[in-house]
Amino acid sequence: MEKHLLLWDKSRRSFVLALRSLWLHKLRSFLSVLGIIIGTVSVITLMAFGEGNMHDALEDIKRQGATNLIVRSVKPSDDATNQRRTMTLNYGLTYADYDQFLVLDSIVSSVPMRYFPQEIRNLHRMFNGRVVGTTPGYQNVNRIDLVEGRFLMDSDEIDEPGDDNELRNVVVLGSDVAEALFPFQTAVGKSVVLNKHQFVVVGVLKDRSSLTTGGLSEDFNSDVYIPLSTCRGRYGEKIFIRQSGSRSGEQVELHQVTVTISDMSKVRDAGKVITDQLERSHFKKDWSVTVPLDRLEEAERARNRGLVLLFFIAMISLTVGGIGIMNIMLATVTERTREIGIRRALGAKRSDITLQFLIEATVQTSVGGILGTIVGIGLVFVLPWASALLLSMHLPAHLKWQPVALSISVACFVGVVFGLYPAFRASRLDPIEALRHD
Amino acid sequence: MPPAVRIENLTKHYFLESVAVRALRGVTLTVNHGEFVAIMGPSGSGKSTLLNLLGCLDRPTSGRYILGDDDVSRMNDDRLSEIRSRYLGFIFQSYNLLPQYTVVENIEIPLLYQGCRINEKTRSRCIQLADLVGLADRLEHRPMQLSGGQQQRVAIARALVNDPHVILADEPTGNLDSKTSDEIMQMLIRLNAAGKTIIMVTHENDIAAWAKRVIRMRDGVIEADEPNAQPRTAQEVSSAFVSTLNSLMSASMR
To answer: Which residue of B has its CA nearest to A18?
Structure first.
């Protein structure tokens, strides 16, 4: 007990002495711990910005719907389609498939889509966009916002397609389409021409490009949305596409169905059920099932890899800082050889000298670590603000406590590791030689 | 009571670039408690080597060295450190105070390494010692703020704090002018009068003249060892000084 208290006394004295000499040689101490400071700053900021970036990307994927399943029609590759140019290719998801999905009880909503390229006209203005025939549920599933007007509504759909006069010719424009056809004016209430039919614009969407990152490069802003029943009525089930002079037609009932599942844990099972269903009802593989949840997990794995990489970079910079400390400690030992001799003559054991220099190194690196943490946290708050202000760039930062704790403790640890050799050197000095040193 | 210091046939050989240097070639010496011995000799005579051995900073090549009750000639480094912190006091030519520490903190150092907890009691003893050597108003000063004489006083107080068997002084006045030298020597005389054993190395006859016994060395052996018939008389040593010092020593933490 007494022995521990004594060790505490000695350590405390060395600690106070270390702080005192740190304060006495402010500039020198600052320069010697600069490596540690930079290392700590880089750990904290890299981790925070890396984490913030990943966090945003993950949020994006989640916004796309981790609870969604995307079932698409795929043009089968086995047919020799090139030889039968004029023939109509019949493939893809059917309305029957769509109705069958609804049998699943974990389904919250299911949004069918048909889409094809289309010229969109307003008087002499023309835009090559894409027509999407869908249901009002599309808005919720894709979480889209409108600048003006409204999205499609249930009342836009009519139950029995066939009677042309009942079909509602309403359209919601993507932001690029609205920009091109109605520059400097309100689109809502005006009309556009799609395939010789007049459609009334009821809404304009907000720019959606910011919602998508990375892999998803579809340009949603040149889409226009019409009610599915209208789409069927006005266009029929066949779609003809002109390709370098020849006509190729395809008959696809539905291009895509986005199925929303009630719970993330049920997504995979639902995916299996739907896959089984389609396998049974389709003779060829003209469909695909995509699970965004898989992409989410892949992105999370990528994030973890990124974090490990950042961690290693940080460790390297802290090691470089530690070497700086070792260098300065070796210089200090030489400079204070006489002091070591005096202490030894007055009864200090080798272990006392080791402890003293070890504490000094650790105090230095810890102070460096703490300074670096303060600067790092400051940067995490200041940089996003500055970049938003000066570059009008969104710089996401996500500060967690783990990197902070990690870098401070690593800074301490670096002090112990890189202080060990200088401290050992100090303790090995011959007291007589050391006393003679000047 | 055993003598303070007893050395028998002590030798010390060095190797300087593989050339053997026989610094001490068989020194036998006994110093009793309460003696004031001056060791003299030209440079290279082995007096510094002898002082290093007496100070347990080095180990002899052969021979025996008994300090008080302990045979220290074969002790390991840690045990020697302990012996230094408990039984020896050092006064150096260049004072050797720690520049980062205040006067009181400098006096405390041997206690710290002795294994003594620094508390109010030890602190007040250190202050009393500083008072005894005449530095009561300089307690919180750093060595750089003190004159040479004052620094040497701090060193004397530091050498006393562990109530050593022997105080070893290596040219204690070497860096001081004659007036300050006199003051320091007066101080040592007073300590000796109060019962402290002092072994001092010097090459100045003036300084050696204060001691009660003078040993002359040459070529690693003792050439002459004789009592000083007429040591320089110090000022009257007040009994108050002696009793204060003794009370401080008996309050020692040992």
So the answer is: B100
pLDDT at A116 over 60: yes
Q: Do A346 and B158 touch (CB under 8 A)?
A: yes
Is residue B233 in a domain?
yes
CB atoms B84 and A10 under 8 Å: no
Q: How many CB pairs under 8 A join A and B?
A: 70
CA atoms within 13 A on the CB side of B146: 26
Q: Which residue would you say has higher pLDDT here, A434 or A86?
A: A434
CA distance B102 to A356: 18
**Domains of chain A by residue range:** 2-61+298-436, 75-285
In a domain, B229, yes or no: yes
Range of the domain at B190: 33-62+76-250
Residue B223, CB half-sphere, CA atoms under 13 Å: how many?
12
| Within a domain: B97 | yes
Domain count of the fold of chain B: 1
Mutate which of A6, A16, A346, A437 to test chain B, going by most B C-beta atoms within 10 A? A346
Of A20, A338, A352, the CB nearest to B113: A352
Residue of B67, B100, B106 to mutate, testing the A interface (most A Cβ within 10 Å of its Cβ): B100
**Nearest-CA distance from B112 to chain A in Å?**
7
Q: How much is the average pLDDT of A420-425? A: 95
Residue B9 placed within a domain: no
Helix pair angle (B148-160, B178-193), 10° resolution:
20
Distance of alpha carbon B133 from the chain centroid: 15
Q: Is the dihedral of CA A155, A157, A160, A164 positive or negative?
A: positive
Q: Could you give the ipTM of this predicted complex?
A: 0.93
